[in-house]
Design brief:
heterodimer, A: 419 residues, 2 domains, seven-stranded mixed beta sheet, five-stranded mixed beta sheet, globular, B: 417 residues, alpha+beta, Cytochrome Bc1 Complex, Chain A, domain 1, 15 helices
Amino acid sequence: MNPLAHKHISTTQFKTNLIVLRFFSPIEEATTSAHALLPDVLLAGTMTHPTRRLLQQALEALYDTRIRTSVSRVGNTRVTQFSVEYLDDAVAPASVTSEAIGLLADVLYHPYLVAGQFDQAIIEREQRLMIEEMESNQENKNYVANKAFKQVLFAGEDYVIDIDGTLEQTSTIDAAQLQQVYNELIASPGLIVSVGATDPTPYLSLFQGRQADVSFVDRQTTSRIHPQYISDVGRFVQASVMIGYRTPICFDDELYYPMILADSILGGSQSSLLFDQVRETHSLAYSVYSSYQGAKGAMVLSAGVDASNVQQAASLMVEQVARLQAGDFSDELLRNAKQLWMQEVETVYDTNTGTAIKSIHDWGLGRRGSKYDSIQQMNQVTKAQVMAAAATLTLDTVYAYSPKEVVWTFEPSNHSKKQ
Amino acid sequence: MDIRTIEPFQETVVSHTCASGLSVMIVPKPAFARTYVTATMRFGSKHLHHPTTNTKFPAGIAHFLEHKMFELPDGDAASQFAALGATTNAFTSFDKTTYLFRTINHVEEATCLLLDMVQSLTIDAASVTKEKGIIQEEIAMYDDMPDSVLFWRTMHNLFVDHPLTYDIAGTAQSVDAITVDDLMTCHQTYYHPTNTLLVVVGPVDPTQLIALIEANQASKSFAQIEVPNVPEYEVALRKSYDTITHLEAQDKLMIAYKQSPEVYQGNFLKYRFAMNIYLEIMFGSTSDFYERLVDQGVINDSFSAFSFVEPDMALAFFSGDTKKPDQLFEEIKTTLDLVPSKEEIQIVQQRMLGSFIRSLHSLEALAHDITNYSILGEDVFAAIEVIQELTVEDVKQIPAFFDEEFKTVTMLHGKRH
């Protein structure tokens, strides 16, 4: 293997330097939990700092140097990320660059092993912590409702595989499986982006791997002729209404920017159609929004409402999509949506993490244009294009997670038959 | 206009008090695209006292007023901020209400819009009634969060007849009791410019911006006001042990200690950092306590130890999911008898210094730090010196805070298992 491809973004804007490593791998159900657990085990100790406590103390002594890990997904690609952030020499009481990067390399390439294997005691402890975290996620209504909704919306598709793993699978992970996914991880295609005043290139030969060449788009879609109406009964006080639409428009589509604006107009701000109607006009919800998933081609509408208002809220939410599709929104709303998006793009570069992630994302998509190119493209989007993007939205699933059983009675006007 | 250069961190802070009494602090950040602006009123959930009568407003009134401030005579403020390319939001805490916006363009117009928004109130009975439904859904949302329920029950048990006993949003009943007159009175009293701090962090010209703010303030008139003081609390507890149940929860334990702010002996800032360092060393993620109890399955990543060391509030909390509450209870009690070493203190001081320097490149973190310290009459940049100068003796006095007589324990029993 060769050193991972590296891109440095030089800036004196930040007090720290940030190095982000990303490894990309396909999501396979059998190893999902082990891949999710692996970063926790790696952070639990290295050969030079054999416990999590010793490792964290070493990082604290380097003026709050931070090593972070995450496992996420873009489409059907798993993204395993490691990062280290440390004070730049210009503001640090003493230089920490070499030691900080060395600690990240230790985490990745010199994990704490006993007789050449991951330590069973560490695995068991991290398994237990992960299981307890999964159990505690069940306290979060939005988490529970989202997860249940995803299971029905994407049933039968790979997208339904939970990147965080499952409770049952997590409890069966052993040292051999962990070793297998570790070997897979460090052999995965990857890349490095660094952001800061000091180019860390001299230290980065420590990080080896294959060059990344992955697709971020998942076009696998279950055909559904009629929308499905589903509800689950939960024990929370408040109900969640979630409505899923499908669209063929993904990151790489020419209507991608119009769809971003459609999402913003529908439920992306305090001036949006959903916010105005569901919250401000009808006082049905405190939280209501839409969310477009550009890697998958889905739009999800969500609101937290009283159980007695589920039908009314769902009906209103679907109505707002119909308004969007009919172009029943003001030019001012479109103009504001553009302004807000352009601000978001600009402000991404006001954080080192945002700068790194945007750079990686564009790199992965093969985009070579600057932020000004994308701002220009966004500026040129017309109302007709927003309507064209919105017209691709097809109602797929109407779902409620409610303390009371919901018998769906409303029928949106553009779908005459209810299943 | 006062201009200070903070040499070690390469930052400049411009301070100014307008003729109206409005305080302004600006940190120019020429390398950034975005500007972050906050307007903060010293008006939080603990300010329930009527300025002229000896009565109290319904709990949650500061939070309710925060919701209503976005309604302007010519439309909603969020749309007007959006038209300037700005995103806006607001939040209420125990001691303050903060309104904010972020923008890359039209900073001056948006700043005037923010000031105009917080310095006028246009409401009627119908809009107040409408808002009650929204806030009651917000309260219902928090009622579904077991950690939130546990915290507020603990606060309830810590205080007797004091505003801090109530949830920041109030209750469904107290929200229902709020009237137009209540809101108008609170606005006239607590949103006065002398009770307001404006903080701007971003690529701005401070001289130009201050001139604009002065002109904005000169165009308005403000009545003389006297802001009522928040009463001191009794150290005595309402309840020292309590249990609650929550349908969708793990078992949780929260232990809280209360003291009189007199415990600071006049230097709350030094005490605050000594407390933070003590809790970090003894109970933080790199402590022996944490590592041992995680290994034994007593606690998990949900465990935390935190404090409120404010001029008028002295509280410390231990909280987390646990399947072994008795052992956790005893382990906390035993650990509170220990004192950290000089070396341990030095490492945490280094971490806190690094963390502070790091926060300087976050517009949001910097604006909030400046606000949090300034409304208490302190200087965030001086605070870092206090951290560096803390001694072992300062930290060693902290265990005396934890008096068993002023401790309340709340157990939340989950029903999921």
